[in-house]
Amino acid sequence: MQQAPPGKDSLMLDAVVTPKVALARLLVGLAQGVLLYLLYFAARAQQWPATEAYLFPTLLLLGVLLPVLLISSLGHLAPRRAAVWMAVAALVMVLLAVYDVWRLGGIPTGWPKPERLPTLPTPSPLLLVASIGGFFIAHALVLAGASERRRIAHYPSYFEMAWKLAIQLQFSLFFINMLWMVLWLGSALFMLVKLNFLKEVLAESWFFIPVTCFAFSCAMHLTDVRPAIVRGIRTLLLVLLSWILPVTVLIVGGFLFSLPFTGLSALWETRHATSVLLGTAAALVILINAAYQNGEVSAGVARVIAVSARLAALLLLPIWAIAVYALSLRVGDYGWTADRITAAACLLVAAFYAFGYGWAAREGGRERAHWMRGVAKVNVATAFVVLAVLLALFSPLGDSARLSVNNQMARLAAGSIKAEQFDFKYLRFDGARYGRQALEQLRDSTQGAEAALIRAKAKAVLKAENRWEEENKEPAPQPQDIAANLTVWPAKARLPDSFLRKDWQKHTSDWEVSPCLKSKDTHCDAYVIDFDGDGKPEVLLMTQEHAWSPLMGENAQGDWVTVGKLPFNSSKCASLRKKLSAGDFKLVARPIKDLQLDGVRMAIQPGGDEEGWRCPDPK
What is the pLDDT of residue 366? Predict the structure, then answer.
C-alpha cells in the first residue's frame, strides 16, 4: 500500500464547512432530541410504539446512532454519497435490532399499565456497545475513502479521520457535561432568591433530552471547524502514550521470562487468564500505534521508542498463543459458553495483529525512515476483519448463544458431562431463545439412562424466575418449625395460630421478611405487642443477621402483612432488645397526625431534636 504524499492527510481535515452545513447539523441534533423525547414519553405512558417489541428497540437504536453519523457526514460526504451511507447504516441497524429482540424472545404487545414501568424492549447493552464501536470504525473508513475518492484510502487518511472522530466525540461529551454543570449552577443561584423555575425546567424530560442532543450537535460542529486544535491534541496524546511503551515492554517481557520458572498452573488457577492476556495484547497494540502514528513520523521517533515498538510487536505472538491455550483448556473442560465464544472472536482479531505486527517488525528493519511500515496494511485489513466479526456475532451466523447452546447440548448427549453437573440455568438465562428451546426439548426427553433426572431439572429451571432461585428449594417450614425458630417476648406471650400457619414463602415483601420465617434452624426474637390498640397483637421480629426489623400485623382479610418496621439496623442495638424483652417501654401516639391525599396516607416525620433514632449503646 502506497503512502500518501506529505501533507495530504491534513488537507482532508481543513475542508470548509458552510453555514448551510452548520444549520443542517443543528437541525439534525434538534430532530434527534425530539425523537428520543417522544420515545421516552411513549415508554413512560406505555403507549405506541413502546408497546411494540420489535419497533421500539429499532427506533431507539436508530435514534441514538444514525443522527450522529449524519451530523459527522454533512460537509464531508456529497449529498448522494451521504444518503447511500445513511441508508446502508440504517438497514444494518434495523436488522441487528430486530434479530436482537427475536433472539431474546420478544415481549408481547398490549401491555397493561401498572404503577411501575415494566422492562422495556430495548437493544441489549452488548449490542449497543458493539454497534457504537462497529459504526465508528465503518464511518471512519467511509469518510477516509470519500476524502480520497477511493474505495481503499491511504493509511494516513484513515489515521487522521479515526483520531479526529474519537477526539470529537470525547470533547462533545465533555462539552455536554460542562453545559449541564453551568445550568445546574444557574438553578442553584436562582434558588438562593427563592426562584425555582430553572430547577423545575431542568428536571423536565421535554427539556433535557432535546437540549442534550442539540448541544452534542453543536459540539460536533465546533470541533469539526477547528481541525488544527484536534490535530494538536492528538499529537500530544500520542507522544505521551508512546513513552509508556518501553515500560509496558519491560513488564510484559518480564512476565514471559518468568513463565519457565513459575509454570502455567498458577496462571490457569485464576480462571480469567484469557481476559487478562487479551487486555495485555490490546494495550500493546494501542501503544505500538501511538508510536507509529500515521507512519510518516518515523524519522523523528526516539530510538528507545522505535526499539520498544519492535519488541512489543514480537511479544504479541507469545501473549496471543498463551491466551489461545488458556481458552482451549477451559473449553476442553467445560465446553463453549457465550463469553468463551466472544473471547475466541477477540482472539481471532488479535491473531491478525500478532502475526501482522510480527511480520511488520521484521520488514524494512534497516530503513529508519520506513520502520514497521507494514503496520499500516495490518491496521486497515484488521479494521475490516473487526467489522466482519461483529456482524457475525450479532447475527444468526455466529450468535454466541446459539453456538454455545448447541455445544452444551452435544456434550450432554455424548455423555461428556453428567446431568447432575450440567448447568441447566445457563440454557435458561444465558442461552436466549435457543437455550429455552433446548430446555423444552430436555423437558420432554425420554431417551438415555438419565432422562428422568434431565426432565426434572429442565422443568424446575423453566419455572425459575431468576438464576439465583434454587432448583430444589428447601421445603417451606411447618408451624412447629417457625415456633421453634422464635423466642417469644414477653415470656408469657403466645404467637397467634394464624401467624404460625401463614406460608411466608409467598409473602410479597420478600426482602423484609426475616429468614426465621422462611427456613429451618434460624433464630429470631418475636415481640408480641398490640401496637395499634385494636385488641389484636402485632409481631415485631428482630435478629442481628437481618438489617430490617419488620412489624407484622393481620389485615381485615385475615392475612399477615408487613405493617411497619423499625429503623434500619436497629436490631443490632443490644440495649433496645434488652428493654423490649423486659417490657421496659411504652407506646406513644404520634405527635403529628398523618396526612391523607386521595386515599394515600403520608406520615409526617418529626423534626427538631427527633430527626433520627440513634442506638444508645456506647459502641
Answer: 45
> E strands of 23-98, at which residues?
none
Largest interatomic CA distance in the chain: 97
pLDDT at 371 over 90: no
Higher pLDDT, 473 or 287: 287
Helix (H, G, I), strand (E, B) or coil at 187: helix
Instruction: Tell me, yes or no, whether 293 and 389 share the same domain.
Output: yes
- B/e letters for 418-436, b = 16+ CB within 10 Å, e = fewer, are ebeebbbbbbbbbbbbbbb
- Same domain? For 318 and 385 the reply is yes
Across 569-578, average pLDDT: 79
- DSSP string over 309-355: HHHHHHHHHHHHHHHHHHHHHHHHHH---HHHHHHHHHHHHHHHHHH
Residue finishing a domain among 170, 197, 225:
225
Query: Are 216 and 285 part of one and the same domain?
Result: no
- Among the listed residues 219, 172, 221, 169, the one whose alpha carbon sits nearest the alpha carbon of residue 20: 221
Q: Could you tell me if 276 and 387 lie in one domain?
A: yes
The answer to whether residues 366 and 445 belong to one domain is no
Helix 155-192 × helix 374-393 angle, to 10°? 60
Read off the pLDDT band of 477 (50, 70, 90).
low
pLDDT digits (tens, 9 = 90+) for 448-476: 778 888 888 888 888 877 776 655 555 66
Looking at the predicted structure, is the pLDDT value of residue 16 above 80? no
* Alpha carbon distance 241, 604 (integer Å): 58
The pLDDT of residue 608 is above 90: no
Let me know if residue 614 belongs to a domain: no
Domain span holding position 438: 413-463
Dihedral Cα 417, 420, 426, 428, nearest 10 deg: 130
Query: 42 in a domain, yes or no?
Result: yes
Q: Using DSSP bridges, classify how beta strands 524-529 and 486-489 pair: parallel, antiparallel or unpaired.
A: parallel
- How far, in Å, CA of 541 to CA of 497, rounded? 16
Mean local confidence (pLDDT), 518-525: 76
Residue 78's SS3 state is coil
CB 570 within 8 A of CB 579: no
Would 192 be classed as within a structural domain?
no
3-state secondary structure of 595: strand
Tell whether 157 and 241 lie within a shared domain: no
Secondary structure percentages of the chain, helix, strand, coil, to 5: 65, 5, 30
Mean pLDDT of 267-287: 88
Residue after which a domain boundary falls, among 463, 492, 524:
463
Residue 3 in this model has a pLDDT that exceeds 60:
no
DSSP label of 200: H
**Nine cell digits for residue 608:** 427538631
DSSP character string of 370-398: GTTTHHHHHHHHHHHHHHHHHHHHTSTTT
| 433 and 492 part of one domain | no
Say if 612 falls within a structural domain. Answer: no
Residues 31, 170 share a domain: yes
**Is the pLDDT at 612 greater than 60, yes or no?**
no
Whether the predicted model's global pTM rises above the 0.85 cut: no
Cell numbers standing for residue 294: 500515521
- Domain count along the chain: 4
pLDDT digits (tens, 9 = 90+) for 588-607: 877 777 777 766 667 666 65
